Automatic annotation (TrEMBL):
<dbReference type="Pfam" id="PF00291">
    <property type="entry name" value="PALP"/>
</dbReference>
<dbReference type="InterPro" id="IPR004450">
    <property type="entry name" value="Thr_synthase-like"/>
</dbReference>
<feature type="domain" description="Tryptophan synthase beta chain-like PALP">
    <location>
        <begin position="99"/>
        <end position="330"/>
    </location>
</feature>
<dbReference type="InterPro" id="IPR051166">
    <property type="entry name" value="Threonine_Synthase"/>
</dbReference>
<feature type="domain" description="Threonine synthase N-terminal">
    <location>
        <begin position="2"/>
        <end position="79"/>
    </location>
</feature>
<keyword id="KW-0028">Amino-acid biosynthesis</keyword>
<dbReference type="GO" id="GO:0004795">
    <property type="term" value="F:threonine synthase activity"/>
</dbReference>
<dbReference type="InterPro" id="IPR001926">
    <property type="entry name" value="TrpB-like_PALP"/>
</dbReference>
<dbReference type="Pfam" id="PF24857">
    <property type="entry name" value="THR4_C"/>
</dbReference>
<comment type="pathway">
    <text>Amino-acid biosynthesis; L-threonine biosynthesis; L-threonine from L-aspartate: step 5/5.</text>
</comment>
<keyword id="KW-0456">Lyase</keyword>
<dbReference type="Pfam" id="PF14821">
    <property type="entry name" value="Thr_synth_N"/>
</dbReference>
<dbReference type="InterPro" id="IPR029144">
    <property type="entry name" value="Thr_synth_N"/>
</dbReference>
<protein>
    <recommendedName>
        <fullName>Threonine synthase</fullName>
        <ecNumber>4.2.3.1</ecNumber>
    </recommendedName>
</protein>
<feature type="modified residue" description="N6-(pyridoxal phosphate)lysine">
    <location>
        <position position="110"/>
    </location>
</feature>
<dbReference type="GO" id="GO:0009088">
    <property type="term" value="P:threonine biosynthetic process"/>
</dbReference>
<dbReference type="GO" id="GO:0030170">
    <property type="term" value="F:pyridoxal phosphate binding"/>
</dbReference>
Amino acid sequence: MRYISTRGGIQPINFKDAVMMGLATDGGLLLPESYPQISRQELDQWRSLSYPDLALRIISPFVDDIPVDDLKGLIQRSYATFNHPQVTPVVHRDGVHILELFHGVTLAFKDVALQLLGNLFEYILAERGERLNILGATSGDTGSAAIHGVRGKKGITIFILHPHGKTSPVQALQMITVGDANVHNIAIRGTFDDCQNMVKALFNDLQFKEKYSLGAVNSINWARVLAQVVYYFYAWLRVTDEGDRPVCFSVPTGNFGDIFAGYVAKRMGLPMGRLLLATNENNILTRFVRDGDYSLANVVATVSPSMDIQLASNFERYLFHLYDQDPGRVRAAFAELRECGRISFTPAEMEQVRADFCSATVDQAATLETIGSFNRETGYLLDPHTAVGVRAALDLLPSDAARVCLATAHPAKFGEAVEKAVGTPAPVPGSIAALAGMETRCTVMDADLEKVRQFVVEHVA
Ligand SMILES: Cc1ncc(COP(=O)(O)O)c(C=O)c1O
Ligand SMILES: N[C@@H](CCOP(=O)(O)O)C(=O)O
């Protein structure tokens, strides 16, 4: 399998080079030239596979340049860190299936991909005798999962930018209490979009990227999306165990990485209905799906802070497919966005979009109400991001389908919102309780690209 850029400016490359390149050198995002097709018969044969074995089946057709035994070892090591034997179990409550993606070290779905990406980086760097300086932006969860995926790993230094004071306290502590010398946290006085724009600007400075061997942990990196494809298959196999029925996924969405992984699963042949794209008040993507209005607005702070995002990075990958893989049209769309703050779509394009997705915005009051009512009715505690997806699923998805809601974080990461919703604090897992009183390390700075660049230069190993 080879990888190409959504902007059309690179020669096809192999998987390991795609992992190391992160953002394509022409400013686009990398995608495989084609998607392997999984037949219904194969799916049925996969029912009894463990999560790591299923992951190997799904990931290996995308990877030509790592021997399969090595890939198997990397996958097994990555999922051995999870605290649930099924890695991503599915539980059934009140007419919805909750796909629990929060059993990894930092209690969010990001661990599923970032444990593997950390191990892939280590493997490739050892093979090549190289070093890597990771630069990432986070609204709260990617940062801690990435830090925990690479902390203490040889040859890797990591710089994570987060919006100062805009993550939950637990999310911040999970990042800034990590004392390893290879970890640097930068709190930016600004939004997640400011952080992501600066990270992309530094990647787009190709001389700088090459001189300092920069690598990406955000879903800019194709390996992130690929690892996330696996749990759509895993969940589908669980909810169809007792017979065939339509399956729909509801995905709380910010940077469009998780839902794009679902879109890839569908393109690979996984039978599913339209993907439900659920947003909080930062709803540019809902406006797009419902009204064809893709226009930038200001970021609003909400009780689901990890989704407080305007410019969703992976949307570009979807656009590439929507435009029949024409990189010229992707470039033109982003030129329009730069010049006019919006992208316009034809009626035929919007018809395709609405065949792929349905969408709903769930505001903060409805999010808190859903956490409260779901808890009263089922005893299950949702985190605010998951609640956005559950509310949207209950409102929009057909009740005769298996409605699978991606549970993207553990409720204890967002204790304040959960307590407000249910009246009592969420039970706190030991790993979170242990953060209290730990020493912290973080540099606060303005959203100033040159200051961030200088910090990186001064701290690269
Ligand atoms: C807990 C949580 N839920 C949902 C999302 C949205 O996922 P994505 O950015 O892949 O759309 C995020 C952030 O990525 C998150 O951290
Ligand atoms: N919500 C994310 C934002 C970054 O998304 P990514 O999937 O591109 O890494 C976060 O938690 O940081």
